[in-house]
Amino acid sequence: MSTIEILKSLTLPLFADVPDADLAIIARAMHLRKLEPRQLVFARGDAAEEVLIVVSGRLRISIATAEGRELSFRAAGRGDVIGEIAVLDGGVRTADVTAIDRSEVLALGKAALNDLIARSPALARAIIATLCQRLRETSDQLESIALHRIESRLARFFLTLARERPAKPDGRVEFSFTLSQGELALLLGASRPKINLALTWLEEQGAIARKGQRLSCRIDSLSTIAGTEAE
């Protein structure tokens, strides 16, 4: 599959309004990188030379303290854009990015991106919208960690994933879910034992059902639980 075919298959909002001629130029400026599990893609403080788009696999965006504590911001999957902020503002990387499993990413260099922004107003508007969405997601995550119980935070996390997929007639959404409880704990700011208890509680409430790596979610039940504030 060619680079432009990969881009079109991802159906990225970032490129939704970009003319085909400009999309072809973007595709020619990109190259495909293959990543192994636990491979460090870039580290906090590194110079920012390229923007990445996840084609397959999952990448973890996190920061770590000198004492070894780690906070994960999110797990990026197919179609997610990574590293755009430092490339756009000329600063250094603000977080570590590590491959969770075997992954592929499309890389677009800084000079090529700046040139494309200058020539394509549609791309510039799309990048602004992407940055605004990232800010909203960060605000929601901080609010969730500060104000909501772990059951509520976990329900919100599953809702985000479920709403990206079509629901069955009975209101359930099913999809493959391969994040470990340890990875969930890092993403949600909780311990692994608390994640385990919260998963069991959500199952008891009928909000989710687990079978191997398949997860079934009830949108109505998760929505009710997601709105429960910490006591």
Topology, element by element:
Layout lengths: L2 H8 L9 H10 E6 L4 E3 L7 E7 L2 E6 L5 E7 L4 E2 L1 H6 L6 E4 L3 E7 H10 L1 H27 L2 H13 L9 E5 L4 H8 L3 H13 L3 E4 L2 E5 H8 L5
Antiparallel strand pairs: 1-8, 2-7, 3-6, 3-8, 4-5, 4-7, 9-11, 10-11
Helix pairs in contact: 2-4, 4-5, 6-8, 6-9, 7-8
Give a verbal description of the structure.
The chain has 231 residues and is α+β, with helices and mostly antiparallel strands. Helices cover 45% and strands 24% of the residues. The protein contains 9 helices and 11 strands. It has a 4-stranded antiparallel sheet. Strand 10 and strand 11 form a beta hairpin. Helix 6 crosses helix 8 (192-204), helix 6 (150-162) packs across helix 9 (219-226) and helix 7 crosses helix 8 (192-204). The N and C termini lie far apart (52 Å). The mean pLDDT is 85.
Brief characterization of the structure:
The protein has 231 residues and is an alpha+beta fold. Helix content is 45%, strand content 24%. It has 9 helices and 11 strands.
